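Hello again,

I reread your note about wanting to compare the complex against the isolated chains. To keep things tidy I'm splitting this into two emails, and this first one only covers the full assembly. Below are the input lines as submitted, including protein chains and any nucleic acid or small-molecule components. They are followed by the predicted structure of everything together. The single-chain runs will come separately.
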Amino acid sequence: MDETRRDFLLKTGKFIVLSAAAAGAWEAVVHGQPDRVPEAYRLLDHWWAFTIDIDKCIGCGNCVYACKKENDVPLEPQFSRTWVERYHVNPDDMEHPEVDSPDGGYFGFPEKYAGQDGKNFFVPKMCNHCATSPCVQVCPVGATFESPDGVVLVDKSYCLGCRYCVQACPYGCRFIDPRTSTVDKCTLCYHRITKGLTTACCEVCPTGARQLGDLKNPNDPIHAFLRDHKVQILKPQMATGAKCYYNGLDGSVR
Amino acid sequence: MRHFFEHKEHLVRMAVLFVVGILAFVVFREIMVPAGFGEYGHFRAGALDDVRAHPVKYAGQATCVQCHTDIAEQRAQGKHAHIGCEACHGPLATHAEGKSDEVPTKPDPRATCLRCHTQNVTKPKTFPQIVPAEHSAEGPCTACHQAHSPSLS
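Full-complex prediction:
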């Protein structure tokens, strides 16, 4: 045996390094120039969440308007993927707040509680994109599902329109689209966020009350937000794994 | 054991029946279950692409400022620095893509402002609000304010 251990290691090392380089070069040849090709969306690299800052919401209704435009949602107020509620908590009866949402907040909120005692605030609502969602559990055909990147979506070509999920959602986020008789809901603008854009509602929110966040991206500002604020989810007792985090949420909010 | 094989005919019949049954089930399942079902979970994998196929209507902040750099600079100076262009101007993806010749219309220089800045007791106290009748009864807000950088001009 005339090959020494040193020779062998040298050869093996060269082979490993060069084959890796060749593989890299081959990748570049196959995919073209790396800066020209948009990075493909990888499902497992994302885990989408949402933050809503109650103290920043001014009830302008831009989000409701933009959502309907972006997603072709029917204009009638009962069909809303997102809507804004106005709370009026009377100090004499803190347990039972007065809640209204004229046209889902589409046209904003005309003054109603001026000069009255009590606290007032807006609460934007939308699908909470629960990690263990009740709506998904009740779907008899697998038409609604949690995507691997943490978004609750509906397969419209598969939905029967049986309405189980509409009843199961503890947040009232689903409705039957009268045009297709299938269920419709917030998709977290899946067609946008998978292309590197933010959701339509976040895009138009003038105060930054609504923010999309990717929990799997260590550089996403959502981590700082969750660290620095005292956040709460809606109906935590339901154990839905909701990923819509509210800052400044009052205990009277249902 | 011999006793067992005396009636093997019955066994064969049963076996054939089972095989046919299983085959029928497999074929039926193949027809009924859509392609890609179960690839990522209890749903059709193609549904993800169906949802993604929806057209984008709001081009997004980054797209607007690629061309409208002057406005972007002006806006960065003032309090509207963090508001998306399409919050006031509406969805303009077709305009950004150059697919349509439509010229975007200017937002109403009064109604657009009042949508946010009309006084309302429910709004956060720190947010700048006015009573339109007291502040300026009529006329466009842009007569005194710059829309993109709304200090008095």
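For quick reference: The longest helix of chain B spans residues 8-32.

B.
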